């Protein structure tokens, strides 16, 4: 075995490596090593989750955003972006439709500062009242701890807040000065302490990313122990400062998914829409590399094109039912099964 193969074998046993070792593994990526990592990851995932794939219904509730992240199409400086905000009735209708299709988790996502805390709390309460067997996940950006607490008390179960990069200097190259790496980390810590099931995450191939910054992302997941980690390739958006930057690759994204699965065998790892955008079979490749979650879109078709985080985002013309059917077929074609379940993290190893 060469050095990289030894590191991979050790990661599989101990679920931990040093920063330098993670960087060495990332730099040693070859088709053979990717295949080995995917085989180990598949074995680790099957031991916890079998061939079950969890599904979450994503509802993009508003595209307004007060932030100006350099990579994101929803950034406030993008004047070509048509802004919308769904009303409660429409959001509740998306949930009802999703429930009928077998979704037991609804993810409400928006740009930052779209909705007041009071409105978020009312909405969460109403969704939980109508669908008590379902989990509600929020992905609405940064708030004060008291606000996160209020949303949790209203019934929210989970919160997704990608850390974007665990390297402070890198974070500062992806965001304008008013956004702070330390504040991001404080938000994640607050969410965890409050009792949410927390998801972090990062883009693969974002500008200025290196093996060292990625090694920090892996170390962060090892230490922070999130329940979920969203990882997708960076894809340039035409009306952002990063318009001319190259996209991340499906290969590196899949390799990192495999490494994350070995770091935390029970981690909820989505095969993201971004992965399906850079490669028509991206989500299948993500699942085969170790992902165990898919998040089809439940937003009304009328607004989907407006929630344009990056160029050529897929599933903007399909109805919710079409996306669900499409993903069922895609998963069963590779030997996996989408289940009607809240899809909570399995902590005791029992299937
Ligand atoms: N390419 C890929 N992912 C992106 N996101 C935002 N912009 C892009 C892009 N250009 C991701 C960020 C954010 C999530 C909602 O979408 O990681 O946290
Ligand atoms: Fe939306 Fe395939 S998942 S069309």
Question: Can you walk through the features of this model?
Answer:
The chain is α/β, with parallel strands linked by helices and 351 residues long. It has one domain: Alpha-Beta Barrel (TIM Barrel), CATH 3.20.20. It is 45% helix and 12% strand. The strands form two sheets. The chain has a six-stranded parallel sheet with strand order 2-3-4-5-6-7. Strands 8-1-9 form a three-stranded parallel sheet, covered by helices on one side. Helix 1 runs parallel beside helix 3 and helix 10 packs parallel to helix 12. The two termini are 33 Å apart. The mean pLDDT is 97. The structure holds 5'-deoxyadenosine and FE2/S2 (inorganic) cluster. The site of FE2/S2 (inorganic) cluster has 7 residues, from helix 14.
Write a concise synopsis of the structure shown:
By secondary structure, the chain is α/β, with parallel strands linked by helices.
What attributes does this structure have?
single chain, 351 residues, alpha/beta, TIM Barrel, 9 strands, globular, binds 5'-deoxyadenosine, binds FE2/S2 (inorganic) cluster
Major sheet: size, sense and barrel closure?
A: 6 strands, parallel
Distinct ligand kinds: 5'-deoxyadenosine, FE2/S2 (inorganic) cluster
Task: Give the low-pLDDT segments.
Answer: none
Order of helices and strands: HHHEEHEHEHEHHEHEHHHEHHE
If you average the pLDDT, what whole number results? 97
Span from first to last CA? 33 Å
- Per CATH, the class reads Alpha Beta
How much is the radius of gyration in Å?
19 Å
- What portion of residues is helical? 40-55%
> Strand sequence of the main sheet, in spatial order?
2-3-4-5-6-7
What number of domains?
A: 1
The total of helices stands at 14
């Amino acid at each position: 075995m060469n050095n990289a193969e030894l590191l991979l074998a050790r990661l599989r046993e101990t679920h931990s490596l040093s920063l330098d070792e993670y960087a060495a593994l990332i730099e040693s990526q070859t088709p053979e090593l990717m295949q080995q990592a995917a085989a180990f990851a598949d074995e680790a995932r099957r031991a916890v989750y079998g061939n079950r794939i969890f599904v979450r219904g994503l509802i993009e509730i508003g595209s307004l955003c007060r932030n100006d992240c350099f990579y994101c199409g929803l950034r406030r400086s993008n004047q070509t972006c048509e802004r919308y905000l769904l009303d409660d009735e429409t959001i509740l209708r998306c949930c009802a439709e999703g429930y009928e299709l077998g979704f037991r988790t609804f993810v409400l996502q928006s740009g930052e500062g779209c909705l007041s805390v009071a409105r978020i709390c009312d909405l969460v309460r109403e969704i939980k009242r109508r669908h008590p067997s379902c989990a509600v996940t929020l992905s609405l950006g940064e708030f004060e701890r008291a606000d996160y607490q209020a949303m949790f008390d209203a019934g929210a179960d989970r919160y997704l807040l990608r850390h974007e990069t665990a390297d402070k200097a890198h974070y500062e190259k992806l965001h304008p000065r008013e956004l702070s790496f330390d504040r991001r980390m404080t938000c994640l810590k607050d969410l965890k302490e409050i009792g949410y099931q927390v998801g972090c995450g990062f883009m693969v191939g974002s500008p200025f990313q290196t093996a060292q910054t990625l090694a920090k992302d892996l170390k962060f997941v090892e230490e922070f122990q999130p329940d979920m980690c969203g990882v997708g390739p960076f894809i340039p958006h035409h009306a952002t400062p990063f318009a001319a930057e190259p996209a991340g690759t499906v290969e590196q994204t899949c390799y990192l998914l495999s490494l994350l699965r070995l770091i935390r065998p029970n981690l909820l790892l989505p095969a993201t829409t971004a992965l399906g955008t850079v490669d028509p079979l991206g989500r299948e490749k993500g699942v085969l590399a170790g992902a165990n979650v898919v998040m089809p879109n439940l937003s009304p078709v009328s607004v989907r094109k407006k929630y344009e985080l990056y160029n050529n985002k897929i599933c903007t013309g399909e109805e919710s039912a079409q996306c669900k059917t499409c993903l069922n077929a895609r998963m069963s074609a590779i030997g996996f099964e989408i289940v009607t379940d809240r899809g909570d993290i399995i902590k005791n190893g029992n299937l």
